[in-house]
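Fill in residues.
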């Protein structure tokens, strides 16, 4: 980033009206920065995420990042946005650190920016998803041309796979902690087996959200189980959702290694931040 490290960041008036949730957790939002592939929008949006969750913002820099620039950026953000900001200068490559960070820190999520097919890790989207596929902590990818938005609305599509229940939990976290409204896009299903999976997932969703008195709406669509996710991202953009939740595969096949995972194209086309939640054999619980 060089001389752009202290790029002036202006936040809207509504930022200063965000009420930080009461929490005794030492949560951290990790913003992954890079000298060459990074965009100020990611810093601004990360500040909003951290304040909305009552979390510390940690700037995570690779070994080659200028230490003086990191200090200046920390001081700039701390002094201007009334936020607890720290820095972490890695002494090992980023991809090695990511393998251990989820268990070492109380991380809520990682954040990286991207433009076209390059992320702020200095690699393409496919390789970024590959490095994160075993993570216990989701990754939020922010397009360089995204609009700055509060966490008023979060969106997701709910399909028939049992792993989709992880999105139900994360939707509840945004609603409970950041007071977000949850928008769920539902596909049209004809297959009997798919219908059973859908029924299970939507029963779990409505039972949890109703029990917690969360603000949510289910939108019936004409999209199939195969097109619902890509189409829903377009709908979420029109509905002014601030973030869209997707699942990403933990296990890759030969086609994923050659052409990249299917999620890559969803992310490249998106105009809003995408939270990538790795599929897991057990549910990751952020809070009780």
């Amino acid at each position: 980033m060089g001389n752009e490290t202290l790029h002036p960041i202006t936040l809207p008036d509504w930022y200063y009206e965000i009420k930080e949730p009461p929490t005794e957790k030492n949560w951290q939002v990790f913003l992954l920065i890079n000298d060459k592939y990074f965009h100020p929008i990611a810093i601004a949006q990360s500040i909003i995420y951290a304040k909305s969750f009552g979390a510390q913002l940690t700037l995570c820099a690779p070994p080659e990042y200028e230490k003086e620039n990191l200090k200046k950026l920390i001081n700039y953000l701390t002094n201007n946005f009334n936020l607890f900001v720290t820095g972490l200068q890695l002494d090992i490559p980023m991809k090695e650190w990511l393998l251990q960070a989820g268990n070492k820190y109380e991380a809520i999520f990682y954040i990286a920016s991207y433009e076209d097919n390059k992320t702020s890790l200095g690699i393409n989207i496919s390789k970024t998803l590959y490095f994160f596929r075993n993570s216990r902590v989701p990754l939020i990818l922010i397009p360089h041309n995204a609009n700055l938005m509060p966490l008023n609305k979060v969106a997701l599509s709910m399909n028939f796979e049992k792993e989709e229940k992880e999105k139900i939990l994360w939707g509840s976290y945004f609603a409970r902690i950041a007071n977000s409204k949850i928008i769920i896009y539902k596909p049209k299903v004809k297959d009997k087996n798919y219908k059973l999976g859908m029924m299970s997932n939507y029963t779990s969703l409505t039972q949890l959200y109703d029990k917690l008195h969360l603000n949510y709406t289910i939108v019936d669509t004409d999209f199939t189980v195969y097109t619902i996710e890509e189409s829903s991202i377009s709908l979420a953009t029109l509905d002014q959702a601030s973030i869209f939740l997707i699942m990403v595969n933990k296990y890759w096949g030969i086609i994923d290694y050659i052409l990249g995972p299917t999620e890559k194209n969803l992310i490249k086309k998106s105009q809003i931040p995408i939270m990538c939640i790795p599929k897991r054999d057990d549910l990751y619980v952020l809070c009780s």
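The two ends are 39 Å apart (CA to CA).
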